[in-house]
Specification:
The chain has 436 residues and is an alpha+beta fold. It folds into two domains: 3-19 and 227-412, UDP-n-acetylglucosamine1-carboxyvinyl-transferase, Chain, CATH 3.65.10.10; 22-224, Enolpyruvate transferase domain (UDP-n-acetylglucosamine1-carboxyvinyl-transferase, Chain, Alpha-beta prism), CATH 3.65.10.10. The chain has 14 helices and 23 strands. It has helices spanning 22-34, 48-59, 84-87, 95-104, 123-131, 161-171, 187-198, 229-241, 257-265, 303-309, 331-336, 366-378, 389-392, 398-404; strands spanning 3-8, 13-17, 38-42, 64-67, 70-74, 106-110, 135-139, 142-146, 152-155, 178-181, 202-204, 210-214, 222-224, 245-249, 269-272, 277-280, 289-291, 316-320, 340-344, 347-351, 360-362, 381-386, 408-411. The protein is globular. The relative contact order is 0.15. Bound molecules: uridine-diphosphate-N-acetylglucosamine (UD1). Uridine-diphosphate-N-acetylglucosamine (UD1) binds next to helix 1, helix 5 and helix 6.
């Protein structure tokens, strides 16, 4: 998607099934490269990051076949050096480091890409591998890693999700037991361990701050990807922003606790079972302070959509971003819609306004783009979001699913005959042509 248009002001209503988790699927795909044989992932999300990872694996000699949400991979043979251009598109490509090291005892991984959320160093990944006896050298944008991991204990000074996953993957090929202390506790870490255990690994403690692994032979297995708690949070924020009523199915509400607490404090009515959830929103009031942090704290990935949900909430909501230093890139776009947001360093204060109006925006990152969509849905009039390909990275079939909930949203036709002219105040297009 290059550009999407939204004519806002309609409450979202209806029922949606949540897709498989992006942040679980990407490490699972990397893990597939560590497992000799065939792997089947069910409920695999139809998103661009998965497609890029499949292309990366294909280049390493790991073919894959997708039919619906079923993805089959065959890692009977796998190379050691992923393609730099593809690796550069994804932060999670760095997880191939652990996977290929465990398989071959050496790997050459190009430096990864991903959203521009700050410096995003790899020191925790690399010092953790060094603690397991791996020699690491970074030369000309490529990480050269040598040596099969030994057993031992790694202490992570910060519970990095990616570093925990990378070390778990490397430890699959370790010569002795490995203990990762200070590990990340996100549900996606547990999902990775569930898959690897199904493949024969011996992992305990995943989901706690101490993950223990003992070496074991691996074989292919089948696994159902965890529901996407961030996608679910985004849909709930969109429903809350528009005063809508939304039922989500195929999710785990327990993984969304801080998001649900906040929406409830803002005045949304929420009912849930173990795998479904219904949110009814009316006029919202500011719920106080939102502080992002590692799981089980409020997820940084839901910060931008939640900000969009609370632009009209009466009072002041303060957001403190503690995970990534550059994660308020959506603020300028939200201001263009008429939002009142003061931003200093890692703190943003949102003062609820009476109404938002359509505007032209340019997406900057995946979750920031999701926030722009939520806010545009709640604004009166037409909005345009360029660089909308960011959304394809994490939200499958977004336009169709928005439409099933009653949103008036469309994509710019490739060879456009529309002659929408945007005025310079960025308040909306002037021709008002209806969507196709
Ligand atoms: C993963 C998620 C991302 C989410 C993030 C935090 C995937 C594909 N991405 O990213 O959507 O926002 O968790 O929940 O699962 N850090 C270091 N050194 C390191 C590694 C990390 O300083 O070696 C810092 C980062 O710069 C950041 C913080 O630690 O400030 C969190 O990063 P991390 O938990 O590693 O996130 P990712 O795995 O990159």
């Amino acid at each position: 998607m290059d550009t999407i248009y939204i004519n806002g002001g309609r409450p979202l209503r209806g029922t949606l099934a949540v897709q498989g988790s992006k942040n679980a699927a990407l490490p699972l795909l990397a893990a597939a490269a560590a497992v000799p044989g065939k792997t089947v992932l069910l409920h695999c999300p139809p998103i661009r990051d998965v497609a890029v990872t499949r292309a990366l694996l294909h280049g390493l000699g790991v073919p894959s076949r997708q039919s619906g949400d079923r993805l089959e991979l065959d890692a009977s043979d796998v190379g050691t050096a992923p393609d730099a251009a593809l690796a550069g598109q994804l932060r999670s490509s760095v997880l191939l480091l652990g996977a290929l090291l465990s398989r071959h005892g050496h790997a050459e991984i190009p430096l990864p890409g991903g959203c521009v959320l700050g410096a995003r160093p790899l020191d925790l990944h690399l010092s953790g591998l060094e603690a397991l006896g791996v020699r690491v050298l970074c030369e000309d944008g490529v990480l050269h890693c040598q040596g099969r991991p030994t057993g031992g204990t790694v202490h992570l000074p910060y519970p990095s999700v990616g570093a925990t996953e990378n070390l778990m993957l490397a430890a699959l090929g370790a010569s002795g037991p490995v203990c990762i202390c200070g590990a990340a506790k996100e549900p996606e870490i547990r999902d990775l361990a569930v898959f690897l255990n199904a493949c024969g690994a011996n992992i305990t403690g995943a989901g706690s701050d101490c993950v223990r692994m003992t070496p074991a032979p691996l074989h292919g297995a089948s696994h159902r990807v965890l529901p996407d708690r961030i996608e679910a949070a985004t849909w709930l924020c969109a429903a809350a922003a528009t005063g809508g009523c939304l039922t989500l199915t195929e999710l785990r509400p327990a993984h969304l606790r801080p998001v649900l607490e906040l929406l409830s404090r803002a005045g949304c009515e929420i009912t849930q079972t173990e795998t479904t959830l219904t949110l009814r929103a009316g006029a919202l009031t500011a719920p106080g302070t939102v502080v992002t942090g590692p799981y089980p704290a409020f997820p940084t990935d839901a910060q931008a959509p939640m900000m969009a949900a609370l632009l009209l909430a009466e009072g002041i909501t303060q957001f403190e971003e503690t995970v990534f230093e550059n994660r308020f890139r959506h603020v300028c776009a939200l201001r263009a819609l008429g939002a009142s947001i003061d931003c200093t360093g890692r703190i943003a204060s949102v003062r609820g306004v009476k109404a938002l109006h359509g505007a032209a925006m340019s997406a900057t990152d995946l979750r920031g783009a999701a926030a722009m969509v939520c806010a545009a849905l709640s604004a009166q009039g037409e909005s345009r979001i360029t660089q909308a390909w960011h959304l394809d990275r994490g939200y499958g079939d977004l336009i169709r699913r928005l439409r099933t909930l009653g949103a008036n949203v469309w994509i710019e036709p490739k060879q456009s005959s529309r002659r929408t002219t945007w005025n310079r105040t960025e308040s909306g297009p002037t021709n008002g042509e209806p969507p196709p």
